[in-house]
Amino acid sequence: MKLVSWNVNGLRACVNKGFNDYFAQMDADMFCLQETKLQDGQITMEIDSTYEQYWNYAEKKGYSGTAVFTRIKPLTVRYGLEEDHEPEGRIITLEFDKFYLVTVYTPNAKRDLSRLDYRLDWEERFRSYLQQLDALKPVVVCGDLNVAHQEIDLKNAKGNKTNSGFTPEERDKMTRLLDAGFLDTFRHFYPDQTDAYTWWSNMPKVRERNVGWRIDYFLASARLAPSLVDARIDAAILGSDHCPIVLELDEKKLAESSDSGLINQ
Q: Is the full-model pTM beyond 0.90?
């Protein structure tokens, strides 16, 4: 089973920069998007009709938004955290037979950290939500989590220690999420790989020199570890200031992991 996640930073613009070619090439079972920046009816996707489409639009035009295209029909679909709605369109949860898939676009603390308190409260609620799901079935989480967790996850750690996305508070929330029973799948396979980034500033030559941050993730319930086949970063794919990330799962082992009992018992 192949899953793809991509912060497209405006889907209409990304479609004009090769999105459909990449989508067709990947032939994914599930393809998740963040920062679609769309309202209902503003785009018609020219993709294989075998995909179900689920969209969560932000109330504010041209802002945030998430989407999931899946060839496997979900049992249930939920939009948001505590309620089946949230104004910024940041979360979609699909329930399948053996696991939950959550795609998320985590709020940015902003350059001046004016939204840091909101961000930290949101992180608490998000972790609680994932733990509630994980108590029922294993969870796969993907998306732009807007944090470089460790110094290895960005090019210039020393110069960014007080900047949005690398503050001690944001990094601590990520640590607490992983400690709650989740794996960073890329680091599961490649714990020491350097220069592995998913986002680059639009400043001149930054991407060319690979001065980036790894802020897009596939996380998975720890008990899914035996079903993980590979996690990778498609850094060569353009079309957004983020690149796509990919997770491959062994479906047979996924079923076994899902039936093996709850980690919290």
A: yes
pLDDT tens, per residue, the chain with 265 residues: 999 999 999 999 999 999 999 999 999 999 999 999 999 999 999 899 999 999 999 999 999 999 999 999 999 999 998 766 779 999 999 999 999 999 999 999 999 999 999 999 999 999 999 999 999 999 999 999 999 999 999 999 999 999 999 999 999 999 999 999 999 999 999 999 999 999 999 999 999 999 999 999 999 999 999 999 999 999 999 999 999 999 999 999 998 877 765 433 3
Residue 264 lies in a domain: no
144 carries an active-site annotation: yes
Residue in 105, 129, 197, 217 annotated catalytic:
105
Is 265 domain-assigned? no
Q: Is 100 a catalytic residue?
A: no
* Three-class SS of the chain: CEEEEEECCCHHHHHCCCHHHHHHHHCCCEEEEECCCCCCCCCCCCCCCCCEEEEECCCCCCCCCEEEEECCCCCEEEECCCCCCCCCCCEEEEECCCCEEEEEECCCCCCCCCCHHHHHHHHHHHHHHHHHHHCCCCEEEEEECCCCCCHHHECCCHHHCCCCCCCHHHHHHHHHHHHCCEEEHHHHHCCCCCCCCCEECCCCCCCCCCCEECCEEEEEEHHHHHHEEEEEECCCCCCCCECCEEEEECHHHHHHHHCCCCCCC
Q: Could you tell me if residue 225 is inside a domain?
A: yes
Range of 126's domain?
2-258
Q: Is residue 263 part of a domain?
A: no
Question: Per the structure, how many domains does the chain have?
Answer: 1
Q: Which of 144, 153, 184, 241 is catalytic?
A: 144
CATH number at residue 101: 3.60.10.10
